[in-house]
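Sat 14:20. Reprocessing the chain from the morning session after the first attempt stalled halfway. Input below, unchanged.
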Amino acid sequence: MLYRALRPLLFALDPETAHRFSLSSLDVLARIGAASLVACAAPRMPVRVMGLEFPNPVGLAAGLDKNGEHINGLAALGFGFLEIGAVTPRAQPGNPPPRLFRLPEAEALINRLGFNNDGVEALTENIRRSRYRGILGINVGKNFDTPNERATDDYLACLRKVYPHATFVTANVSSPNTTDLRALQGPDNFDHLIAALATERDALAKRYGNRVPLAVKIAPDMNDAGIEMIADRVAARGIDAVIATNTTVSRDGIEHLPASRERGGLSGAPLKALATAVVAKLRRALPASVAIIGVGGIASAADAREKLDAGANLVQLYTALVYRGPSLVGEIVRGLASEGRVR
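Finished this time. Tokens:
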């Protein structure tokens, strides 16, 4: 109720300004123990995925907290896990503003942020300062000026830096906002990258005495052959999970909205069916041992159930938080828990 009253004021602000203000306010509420003013308690609904015990299957998608600056505040919302990032080896400003656009009629966002972040060193320092001891995924990418033939170097550099701090690590090869990044989903590039990551992960596991699961995040705009290739290579290289999906470059169903002409990735309700279809195709192509994290257009327990029924083991939220508010997390977990099952 509180968020519903505040939303018109937030929507009167530039989207990035509102984003920063909301997260800073959440941090304050968490620090004084008052997060319950905006969040609903989430019941325990444990599920074991990737060899990890998740307190519930509803997580935060990467992109909302790129630098891990708001971990404590976000943890107070009842998520079963958080994913921060994407982070790159070196700090970079991302694309010039304006670069984030609301489409309220469709409960959607378009962003062309471009991996804006303070670099992996800053992110790991923020993690050290946080109080959170739950499941933390860290999403990694390449710097915009690193050519694709050297992209693996960036991903490996990030993996080495975040490994001691991560519960799982995600290689983001699917953002549409870094030039040619999605080319890393091509067969040769993709296999080279994940083979190198898996080999380095195994070496780091020996060094630290802890095997950290690896995931890859893919685009919703791939054809069936591309999805089958991803599934084949993921299974062959020992990758633990696929996150399906990132934002879409499609504008199907929103062509009539003026903001649809903005470049960037579309998220929110218009992405739901497309992302769910990718989840279902992946589930048919992947062995049961490889987890799927479903993300895209989840704004209710019914939406989350749709992803789980399609074959996801876990789900993630982002855009719906902008439109429905922080109480949504607990509402979804309670709705799923009332069914008494995850799958």
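The first strand starts at residue 47 and ends at 49.
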